[in-house]
Amino acid sequence: MRIVIIGAGFAGMYAALSAARLRDIQGASPETLEIALVSPEPTLVVRPRLYEPKPETLTAPLLNVLKAIDVDYVQGSAETIDTKSKVVNIVAAKGAKKQLAYDRLVVATGSRLFRPNIPGLAEHGFSVDQLDDAIALDRHLHSLPSRPASKARDTVVVAGGGFTGIEAATEMPSRLRAILGKEAKPRVIIVDRNEAIAPDMGAGPRPIIEDALRKLGVETRLGAGVASLDKSGVTLSSGEHIEAATVIWAAGIRAAPLTAQVPAERDNFGRLLVDRELRVPSVAGVFATGDAARASCDGNGNYALMSCQHATRMGAFAGNNAAAELLGVPTKPYHQKGYVTCLDLGEAGALFTRGWEREVTMVNDVAKKTKREINTVWIYPPKAERAAALASADPERVTDVTGFFH
């Protein structure tokens, strides 16, 4: 019997840990129940931190953890899924192709930034979506001192006033001063089509966010979108042209394209609709988790968000349930009643809220300390020690409140 997990993000990592944990509890051998994780590299990209400097350091190795829990690592990219034959077709190094049969499949392929067909976006836009994107942005920022001093050189436009956009924008003044010099006066502008900043946060936290933007000198252009980009900067739907050498696109994400190969119903974000055990109901043997799945968190109409906070716990349930079916033991319905947000606000501190109502419980330096702990400790893989690694993946104990909406 074999479980194949596609993806080494937060959901994929915890699916592997949790499946191995249940296998261990049930006394099954790795030969009886194989667990294979497929990804291009055996590393966890700490994606929630990619708005920070030095993005090339924001990865964590997984190979030793996987070895410690007897999970096979398969290097390559899943190219196609044949759900009738229960086979995943993989493109490995140098274009070599291989097939991997499965008895249960866990789709943990994550999400990608949604890039609309806006003139000039592909040529002139940056992002902090994937590791390569963040590295390209960082290199671009470090190239700015070689350019003649100008308002455009020192201006950054961030398209998107949600979590990713706010964190990228509020981090940018200090990043630019570190690169251009302490006397530099960088200009940062957030552009969003909504009439209010952070539309998903609601009215409670918004004044704190707005105050932080004022303290940092971050401007906003609300009720307008990016109409086009060129070498000189951006033109907004309002007709305003902003001269800027750096434009960061941070407006919306979608489930990774591979989910479209599973013949099942999806939502507007491309996520596969799953039942409470995270199965894809219409496709035998397939589970979906993390950003690839639209899953109910509770009985109150709340659904998992596309965040590492939800992906971690969802992964633990998906891996457990895939193994449970093959081992003939009861599955566990996914539930995640606790929900927090922890929004980085750069040198202005941070904002921490609890519950779906986003009740503000921490601000400023206290919230910043919590944010640092989340970013540098809580969301990293467990140590490569078998007992501790397996214990970390109990789906009922994987924390409800680590991570943050991203």
TrEMBL record:
Molecular function GO labels: NADH dehydrogenase activity
Domain of life the protein comes from: Bacteria
Domain FAD/NAD(P)-binding per the UniProt entry, residue ranges: 1-315
Keyword Oxidoreductase: yes
Pfam short name (any one): Pyr_redox_2
First and last residue of the signal peptide: none
Keyword field: FAD, Flavoprotein, NAD, Oxidoreductase
Coiled coil regions, renumbered to chain: none
InterPro entries hit by this protein: FAD/NAD-bd_sf, FAD/NAD-binding_dom, NDH-2
Gene3D superfamilies: 3.50.50.100
Keyword set includes NAD: yes
Family indicated by similarity: Belongs to the NADH dehydrogenase family.
PANTHER family the UniProt entry points to: NADH DEHYDROGENASE, NADH DEHYDROGENASE-LIKE PROTEIN RV1812C
Name this protein carries in UniProt: Pyridine nucleotide-disulfide oxidoreductase
Organism field: Bradyrhizobium centrolobii
